[in-house]
Amino acid sequence: MEPIALLLAATLNAGTALAIAGLGLLINEKCGIVNLGAEGIMLIAAIAGFATVVHTDNDWVGFAAGMGAGALLALVFGWLVIWLNTNQYATGLALSMFGAGFSAFVGIRYVQEKLPAREQFAIPWLADIPLAGAALFKQHPMVYIAIALTFAMAWFLYRSRTGLVLRSIGESPESAHALGYRVRWIRLACVVAGGALCGLAGAYISVIYTPLWVEGMTAGKGWITLALTTFATWRPGRVLLGAYLFGGVTMLQFHLQGMGVQVASQLLTMLPYVATIVVLALISRNPTWIRVNMPASLGKPFYPGA
Amino acid sequence: MPVEPSVISRLALRGIRKAYPAVVANDAVDLTVMPGEIHAVLGENGAGKSTLMKIIYGVVMPDAGEIRWNGNVVKVRSPHEARAMGIAMVFQHFSLFDTLTVAENVWLGLDRSLSLIEVSARIRAKAAEYGQDIDPLRPVHTLSVGGRQRVEIVRALLTDPRLLILDEPTSVLTPQAVEKLFVTLRQLAQTGCSILYISHKLDEIRALCHRCTVLRGGKLAGVVDPTVESTASLSRLMIGAEPHRIEHRTANQGPVALAVKTLSVARLDQFGVALDDINLHVHAGEVVGIAGVSGNGQQELLAILSGEDPRALPQAVQLFGSPIGNLGPRARRARGLYFVPEERLGRGAVPTLGLAHNMLLTRQDGGAVRAAGWIDLRRIREMADHVIARFNVKAGGHHAAARSLSGGNLQKFIVGREIDADPKVFIVAQPTWGVDVGAAAQIRNELLRLRDMGCALLIVSEELDELFEITDRLHVIAQGRLSPSMRTSKATTQQVGEWMSGLWSTEEPIHAA
């Protein structure tokens, strides 16, 4: 493959986990709940997915296991912050730390495990197009699922009535309650859906992206995703764009290091973080745009009937 | 309307009690509303009206008491259940979603599965039915207070309620529009819908309502027929004492203090209003009022006058003859121009901060901030205590968060904070919006006292009664243009109402818009 096509292929692959997790956090935050536990959820889902694939030899069962683990953790998180009104930030941080420790503990016996040979996917005909064909159409199905999910999420949030209810709860749970919506249950549903998507992203990382298990292998992707969602001003398309941007610059700096560019590798490693934040900060400068898109109740507790 | 005793009441409350940790909001309250009855609930701020309405609407559960709906004992556990029963409510503190459009807001309030396009059509139709103009596609955050209220009312009407609760619905309507609303409400009542009408406007209650339940201090003060009561007797029943009187003395005018000259400003965004050739002047010792339906350029004009919007030419706004159009709010305060904005929470005060800290928003004078930028905490507490005492603000001390105060008390605090700075020119937007009779009278008296001390006052209000009560001269703003002024003593409600629609004759040729 051409270097550019190679880079493009790697970018799509690297951005996919961030995109899926980002969409999960998006739905989470659009209803007003911040889940700082994303990193922990992704780690536990990564080991859950990896272990499942080791035992079942089936990637898709592994993805399901990751989603299930993510949903279960999010359920506990949701119960704590929505019903018991614990502080969302503190609870999320605790979940992240728990996830890091617990996944390392459970994962000890899987550190040396290898997954069965990874399947190659290719879309017939399209993959044979010269130059970009192999890069765009020889990807894991999850890459296309992430793109489809972005469009589905945009449609759901901005075109469907359920999405409208969800956004209204994120803006003013009190008003939504006064209109007769079951704020807590809808929020819980969003949190669980968000957890499931973070779980799917975690499983994708350990099963497809880097098919192995090492402690702390998500390497801060949960945190980056949280920042991504904010800088993308809670718009699905921008989340996807930001994910690819981050993935692309990550891959670019690997290439640059490989080519022996005379820049300290530490500086190159910083590049994806800096580039993503600079670009997204620039496109989201407009204060009106932020005010319109930011869920106003984000991170605040809601007490029905107070 | 005579009510036959054999008819089953639409809603009957018996012995309702609700206690909060600090206060008993409702104690042994009874309320009966018949089908098709327009029933007023009258009471001062803090009398327990809002709590009672929240109990009916299921937002709050009562500690004791019985609710009967169409004769059956019910428990209203949530607004969801209330709406399913056929109760709709228009809140005083709007329950709209700022970032959503009008149509989306209404859509959320409708249980049936309509499409957004159908909802938009229904909004237009319903608004037209009541002679109002609502653009379903506008985001709510671009609407004025009055515009938001119209959306709330239309949203409630579209649910075809059996009981409609309206909380202070007319404060932002022109007299003609109030008449239209009353026609609507009477029509609605004739179809059998009951209406609970919460208001502090005694004239309106007497003109519209069949019966009136009066609350005082969380307890039932009486149930009367407002058509036979006088305004004074209703007021006495509500306050439990003689109402305040406004003494209107003739103005003792000085030189021109504030002048606006040929001010034209383009609109800021597609939902704003452009100001077109505005001319006005306010003398020292004079109160000038600006009437008008909200959304006709008031917000824009106020932003120019306060200095929030710096786009005016320096000469367009003059304070004692010197150009200030390009100065910021702080520089204007330093020259004696003080300002009370329309939104109390968020603009006039920081909701979560205590009153002492809220002093700092506009009062960094008098040693509150020392040379190195340190806040003198003791000084701001003293200043807050002083305002609380001088203006009789009911609050839990200078530490009380701004949002914990009732609307009337917070307004007294904010107006008091500015008056305490001895302004030379004082601009007030909606001085008594949502404020009860007692507090409103007190605020108006303070404004008049300020005038008598030689301050120039500009009052922008949507409440005509208020403008007639305290102003010396009156302008009307419509579609970004300002009418000539008239002596308030010679003005009539009808004329002002016509001017609000932009119909005034000008001596000079009318500029092309």
Describe, in plain words, how this protein is organized in 3D:
The complex is a heterodimer of chains A (306) and B (513). By secondary structure, chain A is mainly α. Chain A has a single domain (3-293), classed as ABC transporter involved in vitamin B12 uptake, BtuC, CATH 1.10.3470. Chain A contains 13 helices and no strands. In chain A, α1 runs antiparallel to α9 and α11 packs antiparallel against α12. The longest helix of chain A has 28 residues, at 3-30. The model of chain A has no long low-confidence stretch (mean pLDDT 88). Chain B is built from 16 helices and 21 strands. In chain B, strands 13, 16, 17, 18, 19, 20 and 21 form a seven-stranded mixed beta sheet that branches. Chain B has helices spanning 49-56, 79-85, 102-109, 116-129, 145-157, 175-190, 202-208, 231-239, 298-306, 329-334, 355-359, 377-390, 407-419, 437-452, 464-470, 493-500, and strands spanning 11-19, 24-33, 38-42, 64-69, 72-74, 87-90, 163-167, 194-198, 211-216, 219-224, 256-265, 275-283, 287-291, 317-319, 322-323, 337-340, 425-429, 456-460, 473-478, 481-482, 486-487. Chain B has 513 residues and is an alpha/beta fold. In chain B, α3 packs across α4, α3 (102-109) runs parallel beside α5 and α13 packs parallel to α14 (437-452). The model of chain B is unreliable at 508-513 (pLDDT under 50). Classes of the chains: A mainly alpha (306), B alpha/beta (513). At the A-B interface, α7, α8 and α13 of A face α2 and α3 of B.
